[in-house]
Amino acid sequence: MPHQNVLVSDTKPGMDTAVMVAQKPPAVPRGYIPYPYPRSRRVLKNLEINGEQRINAWVDSMRASSPTNAKSSPSLAEEQYTSWILHHPSALDMFEQIVDASKGKQIVMFLDYDGTLSPIVDDPDRAFMSDLMRQTVRKLARCFPSAIVTGRCIDKVYNFVRLAELYYAGSHGMDIKGPSKSFKFNKDKESEEVVFQPASEFLPMIDEVYQQLVEKSKSTPGAKVENNKFCISVHFRCVDEKKWGELAQKVRSVLKEYPKLRLTQGRKVLEIRPTIKWDKGMALEFLLESLGFANLTDVFPVYIGDDKTDEDAFKKLRDRGQGVGIMVSKFPKDTSASYSLQEPNEVMDFLQRLVEWKQVRTRSRV
Ligand SMILES: [Mg+2]
């Protein structure tokens, strides 16, 4: 299926450079994909629970970046996207370069769920992935060790994905489970099943805060509080923008009594997590080690995600000088990922191409 990137098919002035990048990608040295251009990067920062200005800044930044506002000045949005795609070219356009860099290495796939495998929807309980996406991920997991890395709790994401072949890292990597033994890529099929919960001592506190947030947010229409076992998500997606500040203040008022919990920001969501130093990047590293790929020279991790919390994983890959990070977005975002895909349908195309590439290589060896 041809890549549907509007930039490539558009003939407006100023788009030529983007087309040129797609046709003449920069040379990629073997071994790893470098981050194509130096850039200023904003690290995901914890929101200061006691800092009112930070809460207001979050609400403002969320308003400014929402697609509704982007539509108000289409030419500016187009211009920004054109500039952004130069630094983060489409992973579909760069497919050959990516697989070329992986030669001689074991590809390991890491996939975020919401906004990556499933569309973003108003009701987080209805973020279903399509059957076609499920089939594609199943085929992918038969070709490469594959993991879902998500902010959701494992049970919830497993109900959506329903594939026993995968590793699951739920609650932003704080709840990790390996596949059943029969699906293991690990050479040692008899080794213990991977289970890792670095923040289990926080469970009672998380439950307590969840109850309080549910109570406090009742008076804000559309607010939804989700218990993701080791973290809590407060969803703003269905809340009137005029009420975002008020809801953020309510969250802050609960959290200020819990210094061992921290607040981070996602896509129209505030997330509460234990202060332990553990994130999706560390989960990625833990999984690579569990799979026996701690050795830098023989593994090629590919991480695909759409959210700020995925930045920890993109940064981890960049720091290790290994594999590729792919940001799923139709809008310019400050990211450490090398490449981009616009939406889950493009993610599916990319995964399908990887499967076909692997199948051709396997056949040619027989
Ligand atoms: Mg996501």
UniProtKB/TrEMBL annotation:
It catalyses: alpha,alpha-trehalose 6-phosphate + H2O = alpha,alpha-trehalose + phosphate. Keywords: Hydrolase, Stress response. Its EC number is 3.1.3.12. One of its GO terms (biological process) is trehalose biosynthetic process. It comes from the Eukaryota. Pfam families: Trehalose_PPase (PF02358). It is an enzyme of class 3 (hydrolase). Its cofactor is a divalent metal cation. InterPro entries: HAD-like_sf, HAD-SF_hydro_IIB, HAD_sf, OTSB-like, Trehalose_PPase. GO terms for molecular function: trehalose-phosphatase activity. SUPFAM superfamilies: HAD-like. Pathway: Glycan biosynthesis; trehalose biosynthesis. The keyword Hydrolase applies. Belongs to the trehalose phosphatase family. Removes the phosphate from trehalose 6-phosphate to produce free trehalose. Trehalose accumulation in plant may improve abiotic stress tolerance. This is Trehalose 6-phosphate phosphatase. It comes from Lupinus albus.
